[in-house]
Write a structure and sequence with these properties.
Blueprint lengths: L3 H8 L5 H18 L17 E7 L4 H4 L6 H9 L1 E7 L5 H10 L21 H7 L4 E5 L11 E2 L2 E2 L16 E3 L13 E5 L11 H19 L4 E7 L9 E2 L1 E5 L6 E8 H11 L21
Parallel strand pairs: 1-7, 1-8, 2-11, 3-6, 3-7
Antiparallel strand pairs: 2-9, 2-10, 4-5, 8-10
Helix pairs in contact: 1-2, 5-8
Length: 299
């Protein structure tokens, strides 16, 4: 926070009691910042601040393969009762760089799906930013062998879909098994990422299988979010390499205007920027130059 409000207070007498109080508050905040304190993070005015956000990333299907498909009735119900980003795009191919882009605003130089070295980067990312702002983050990973495990793969689990392990400024203790996803949703952190395994995310199995998994495993949270100022965001890492990387991104919950849509072009960087601005964090990588998702919020 700039010290200019404090200088104005010291150099100009207050004309009213209200003005005095306003200037005094500004001076105090300036002094706190000068002493090294950090003011509480505040959300950007253009987006809501949900009590909880759960992000789920599905795999390798184009927008046209999901929206309007009879194989994905649950995702389409979320669209109808929530919001549809009708021009949502992934960043690149293959899968793994998109996960890093969504989480950190950069592909971090990753260009393939090979097993990266855990903690190879100290770049800013959503997890580290939330921690710096005094907010909470966790991931819930289906078929992860054990909480915090950095194994490359295990059965249908694949670390290539878990970018948080690439950052040494995100504790591995924030990575949970999906069995640890709370049934009392008030116990969720402010931001959670859910990573289904390679069958449940539609990578190895059908659209219908993934759609059913979403309903069975996150349907109760979605219903709860509708009356508890919380948000479910379902997106895809990339398309099927045949549709210009256009993907499905739907948002559902109390802060979302039912049946709304946006035709503005958005990417993973806009999704990251929006979550960052919901909780007043910094902006990682290319999220700094992205805009917030707009036109779908209830207020």
């Amino acid at each position: 926070m700039s010290g200019s409000p404090a200088r104005r207070f010291l150099s100009r007498p207050a004309r009213t009691a209200a003005a005095s109080l306003t200037c005094l508050a500004a001076a105090g905040a300036g002094l706190w910042a000068a002493l090294g304190g950090a003011p509480a993070a505040q959300a950007a005015g253009s987006v809501p601040t949900p009590d909880h956000v759960v992000v789920v990333v599905m795999e390798n299907h184009a927008y046209s393969q999901i929206i309007g498909s009879s194989s994905a009735p649950y995702i389409n119900s979320l669209k109808s009762g929530g919001a549809d980003l009708a021009s949502s795009y992934a960043i690149t191919h293959p899968s793994q760089p998109n996960y890093f882009a969504l989480f950190s605003g950069s592909t971090q130089g990753v260009t393939d799906d090979s097993c990266y070295t855990p903690g190879f980067s100290s770049a800013a990312n959503l997890g580290s930013e939330l921690a710096s702002a005094g907010k909470s983050f966790a991931s819930y990973n289906e078929t992860l062998p054990s909480a915090g495990s950095t194994t490359c793969s295990s059965g249908k689990y694949a670390r290539k879909h878990n970018p948080w392990f690439g950052f040494r400024n995100v504790p591995t203790s924030t990575a949970h098994t999906f069995a640890q996803f709370p049934t009392d949703f008030t116990q969720l952190p402010q931001v959670s990422f859910v990573t289904p395994n390679l069958c449940s995310d539609m990578h190895d199995c059908s659209v219908a299988t993934g759609d059913t998994w979403l309903q069975n495993n996150l349907g109760a949270y979605a219903t709860w979010a509708k009356t508890h100022h919380s948000l479910l965001l379902v997106t895809f890492d990339e398309d099927n390499s045949l549709s210009g990387n256009k993907i499905t991104t739907v948002l559902y919950g109390q802060p979302v205007k039912p049946g709304s849509s946006s035709s503005a072009k958005y990417t993973h960087y806009n999704v990251l920027r929006t979550i960052e601005d919901m909780y007043g964090t910094g902006h990682a990588g290319q999220a700094a130059g992205a805009t917030d998702i707009s036109g779908i919020w209830t207020s």
